[in-house]
Every structure is written in structure tokens, then in C-alpha cells.
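Agenda item 2: 4'-deoxy-4'-aminopyridoxal-5'-phosphate complex prediction
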Amino acid sequence: MSFESFGIEDLPIRDELRGKSPYGAPQLDVPVRLNTNENPYPLPEPLVERIAERVREAARALNRYPDRDAVELRTRLAEYLTRTGGHPVGAGNVWAANGSNEVIQQLLQTFGGPGRSAIGFEPSYSMHALIARGTGTRWITGPRDEDFTIDLPAAEKAIAEHRPDVVFVTTPNNPTGGAVPSETVLALYEAAQAAKPSMVIVDEAYVEFSHKGSLLPLLEGRPNLVISRTMSKAFGAAGLRLGYFAAHPAVVDAVQLVRLPYHLSSITQATALAALEHTDTLLGYVEQLKSERDRLVAELRAAGYEVTEPDANFVQFGRFADSHAAWRKILDRGVLVRDNGVPGWLRVTAGTPAENDAFLDAIRELKKEQE
Ligand code: PMP
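Presented output:
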């Protein structure tokens, strides 16, 4: 084989990576991008100024490694969780990394890995399965009901049968949008403890947008429960790459065994600390997005579409005989939504009122075309 035609399959890569595709939401340059559940509002100018100030200060000490334990940041994150999550936590309960994707990777490196398995109830956030693969953790696809809620008896049965080491629960779920009732999470936790015991990771990336509250209070008395969060959505800081989790301090101690030293740069820590100083302003945008999300639901229904009950900053809508063809037609009208591969359904992120209007115009036209 020639050097020129040499490709990935010619490399001695791990067998489980062969023929697989990377995570790849399209990054297309179109006028209205409502496909990756980002917050459409740029950070407010006073916060941009504060970030610049904090980063300038951090830059003066860039010759040194950052605070490896990110103590100040974890303290501020714990204060935020305590204030908004209905349960007191301290810095010792909180761990942070580069996006909740890295948080999940560290958790799977610690609690999953070769010879171990993780279960998620699909459709759900596709990175859980991809990170499992990347960490050598066997992935098990758990069931969901027709209406995309978790079918509890079937889920309990799957846990008892497969005895996974890690159980993922995404609430609100991506891409279907609904929050999982706390009784369901409690029952899954019990099932997971009876089967193994195993770790239960509750991914609350979108919880600030939910009609229901955080499941943080469930941490009380449950050392194998982890609640994962991110600043990518509610804090409008997807570019920052800052995720975190809350759990028993023993879990924080455990992930120290796999985290890379100095994984969170001083620039990241400084920027996140500045954003946390502006929490109230940012949560004000969350309120606007929640009402825009509710408007999208009402207008989609009025236009004759079905919508699955949404608790996040996005809405799953359908049904389409060919969802990919519908995705393309919406894109032809300058609006990028997401085809998550759920047959019959697409997902739209709540944008600014103008972006949402553009989306609604596009899908109303599409409906007319289909009639
Ligand atoms: N969890 C869920 C459910 C998500 O949808 C996302 C982002 N799409 C993430 C985690 C990852 O977010 P980040 O790495 O930006 O924190």
C-alpha cells in the first residue's frame, strides 16, 4: 500500500474503534444555527470586561502551572449549586473539568474501563456511548417507552440482567427533552445498588431550563450517585469548556486517580470564575429562553407538528416520514436544526426571538409543501 493512500484503517488502531465515526454535529455557516443546544445570547459586555480583567491577571502567572485542585472555582461552583439546587454542597463535593464531556470521561476512566460496562436509555446523549467506547467500557443500550420516557420496569430488568458498573440518566434528556421524575431516578439507583453496586451518573446539563428542579437533594445518603453539570448551556459559555459534578467527596477523591495533572488551565479557571460572578444576569437569559422554548412548543403544535414534552432549551418535533429529507428542506431555508437519527423526529434549539421566528416560518412553509 502506498504512503499516499494510507488511511485510518491501515493503522494498528484498537479493534473497537475500527470503522467508527467521530461525534460530528455539522458546523455549517448558515444564517440561523439552532442545532447544538447553545445559548444564543453572547455574554454581556460587563462580563466580557470582567473576563478580560481576570484573564490579564492570570496571564501574569502563566509561567506557573494552574491550581491543580481548582479550589476557588470549586468553592464558587458549590455556592452556586447550594443556592440553586436545594441541597448544600461544599468544594469537597464538587469536581470540575474541561466540559461535562471530560467530567464523564474521567468518571468512566474511574468506574468503567476494560471488562466493565455502562448502560444508557436511548435515544439519549450520544457521547455517553462514545466516551464509553473511548475508555474501553462495554456499552449497553437500555430501553425507553414509545413516548420517550424511561420504561422503569424494563430499565430495572435491564440493570438486574446486565449488572452494569455505570448507569447513565440524562435529565432533561437530550434529544427528547423531558425531565426524569426523581422517583424514577431513585428506583434506578436502588436497582443499580442491588445489582452490583454501581455508580449512577445523572447528567443535568440542561437542568436550569427544566420545569422540575435539580436532583441534587438525592445526593444525601447516596455515595454512588453523581450529578453532572455544565456551564455550556445556562451560563452561555459553550466555548469556555467547563463542566463539573457534585457527589460524595469519596467520588472526588476517586477521579483524582485518572485526571491529568493541571487539566484545567489558569485561563479557564479565571474565565469561569468571572462568569460565576455574573450568575444572576446569565440566569435572566435562561428565563427568556424558557419562555421562547414554550413559544416554540405552542407554535409548533399550532402549525400541526407533534412535540415531545420539553424541559430543556430545545424541542424535539415531528413527525416526519423522512426526517433527514425534512432536515435538508429546513436547511435550504437557511435554518440548521439537528437530525439526531431518531426516526420521524428532529430537534431545534431555542434561539433568539428572531431566530425562532425564522425557524417557525421555515417549518410552516414545509407543512404547506407536505399538504
Ligand atoms: N450532556 C448532555 C446531555 C449534553 O447534551 C451535552 C452537550 N451537548 C453535554 C453533556 C456536554 O456538554 P459540555 O461538554 O459542553 O459540558
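Discussion summary: The chain has two domains: 25-44+280-370, 45-277.
Owner for follow-up: CH.
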